[in-house]
Amino acid sequence: MELMVNKETVAINEVVFDGASELPIESDFMLPDYCPDIVRVLKCNLEPVVTAKQATGDKVMIDGVAELKLLYVAEDELIRNYEYKLPFSKTVTMKGQADNPIVFAAASTDYVNCRAVSQRRLDVRGALSVAVKVMVQHGESIVSGASGQSIQLKKKNTYVSQVVSDVSRQFTVREELELSGGKPKIEHIVNKVVHVNITDNKVMANKIMVKADMTIKLSYISHDRNLYTCEFSLPVSQVIDVAGVDETCRCTVNLRMHDCDVILRPDLDEDGSALDIEVTLGAEVKAYCSCEIPAVNDLYSTEFETTYQTKMVTLNNLIDVVKEEYSEKNTFEMPDENIVDVLDVWSSSQVRSVRFIDGEFHMVSLVRISMLVKNAEGIVQFFERVMDSEYTFPCSICTENMTAEYDIQSINCSYEKVSEASIEIKVDLAVTASIFGILKENVIYDLQINEEAPKKKLDLPALTIYYADANESIWEIAKKYNTSVTAILEQNEIEKEILSGRQMLLIPVAD
After folding, report:
1. How far apart are CA 143 and CA 147, in angstroms?
2. Percentage, residues of the chain above pLDDT 90
3. What is the CB neighbour count within 10 angstroms for residue 166?
4. Per CATH, the architecture of 456-511 is what?
C-alpha cells in the first residue's frame, strides 16, 4: 500500500521581546488664571495610560498620556485640584525584525514628586515604568498522520491556541446627571474617581458586545465651604468590531478609563446640581481560538527502514480565562490623634508580581489608599497607606511551564471608623487574566521510507514472552520487537499503553 502522509499547519506563538524600562518625567507648568494660588500641596498623582502602540522593523513605539492630578490648599483655605496632561513616548529596540507582531504594552508610575516653586508654578519630577511584550505568530507544518507501508505512529494530542485578533479601541460615554438625595450644590470639584467593572461580554461574528458598570465618585466643595461626596452609577454597553472572531473564540476584555470631564451646567440649573459627564474608555480585546493537534513525535515501519526529520516547537494553550472579584480589609492607625473627621477615601492598585505554585496562579498586588481628613483645628490633611493583596486561582490544567497576561483594578473603596484613632478600609478588586500552558515538543515534520531497504526479519517465534517493568511504554516494546502497539494490546487484553506494574507480555510477530 502506498505511503500517505498527512500534514497540518500549527500556530506557533513566539515572544521575541519582553522587557520593562524606566521613562523619566520632568516638567514644570504654571497654574491657569482660573485656579487660585497655592498655599500648600496635599498630593500629586501621576496616572499613565498607553494610547497607541506600533512595531515597525526592529522598533516598537509606545505613546501615551500621563495625567498629573494635583490636590492643594488654596489661599481661600479650600481644597482645590488641577489636572495636567503630560504626553510620553517610548521606543524599544528588538534584536531583529518582527513580522506581523502583536504588541502588549502597559505603563505604571514608579514615583512622582511635585514641588511648588511659587504660588503659581510647579516643578514635577518622576518616573514611569513601561512594560512591552512583542509576540509573533507563524505557522509550522508538521506530520499529523500517515498510513501505508506498515507505518507505526506515536502521537501526542495537544491543544494549541492561536491569537485571532488583538484590538484596541476608544469610545466615549456621555451623560447628563443631577445631584439627588438632598446633596448640597457643587461650587467646585476636588477629586474624580472612575471605576469600570465588566459584567458581561458576548462574542458574535466579527464583533464582541461588552457590558460594564461604571461608577463615578466626585468629591466637591459646596457653598458652605465643606467637602462632600456623591456617586453615580452608569451602565456601559458597547459593540466592538473584532475581525475574525466567532462564537468558538475565547476573549479577554479590559476597560480602562483614559479621561473624565465633568462640567457644571448652570444653564440647566443655576444652583449647581446639573452635570455633564464625559468619560473616554479604552478597550483592549484579545481573541483566541484553540484546536487539537495530533502531533507525531516518533515512527517506524515494520517493513522498511525509515528516516525522519524533527524540530522543537513551542506550543501555547489557553488554559483558563479568569474574571473574578474579591475584597481586602485592613485597619490603619490615624497618623495624628487630633483628626476628627474623614472627608474622603479612594484607592488604586497595581500588580507587583505573578508566579505559579503547585498549579495555582498567584498574583501579588500593591493597593494604595488615599485619604483626606480634617483635624480639630479645621486643617485639611492628606495621607496615604499601602497594603499588599494576594489573589490565587487554581488552574484547571497544570503544565511544567505556564505564563499569564493579567490586570487588576480597584472597583470600590469604603471605610468605617472603628475607634477615634483607627479606620477600617475595605477595597473591592477585579482581576482579569489569561493563563497559558507552554509546551515544548519535538515533532516530526518530514519522513522517508526506503522501499529498497526492507527490514531483516528477526528470528523469533510467533509469540515472544517479555517481562515488563512498571511504567514501561508499550510503544518502546513494540518498536524494539518491530511489531505494533495494537497487536500487543490485543494479544494481552490490556488498554493502557503505560504499564502500572510488572507484567508478563506476549509479543506477537508483525504481519
Report:
1. 12
2. 52
3. 18
4. Roll (3.10)
Which residues in 453-491 are b (16+ Cβ under 10 Å) and which e? Answer: eebeeeeeeeeeebebeeebebbebbbebbbbbebbbee
Cα gap 440→313, rounded to integer Å: 6
Instruction: Output the nine-digit C-alpha cell for 168.
Output: 484596541
CA separation for the pair 349, 366 (Å, rounded)? 6
pLDDT per residue as tens digits for the range 399-434 = 888 999 899 999 899 999 888 788 999 999 999 999
| Residue that has been written with the C-alpha cell 456621555 in this structure | 174
* Residue given cell 460615554 in the structure block: 173
**Cα–Cα distance between 239 and 288 in angstroms, integer?**
18
Instruction: Say how far apart CA 451 and CA 162 lie, in whole Å.
Output: 39
| Beta-ladder partners of 255 | 283
* pLDDT higher than threshold 80 for residue 461: no
Q: Give dist(CA 331, CA 347) in Å, integer.
A: 14
Q: Which three cell numbers stand for residue 507?
A: 509479543
- pTM for the predicted model, two decimal places: 0.83
C-alpha to C-alpha distance for 411 and 504, rounded to whole angstroms = 63
Coil/strand/helix, residue 295: strand
pLDDT above 90 (res 180):
no
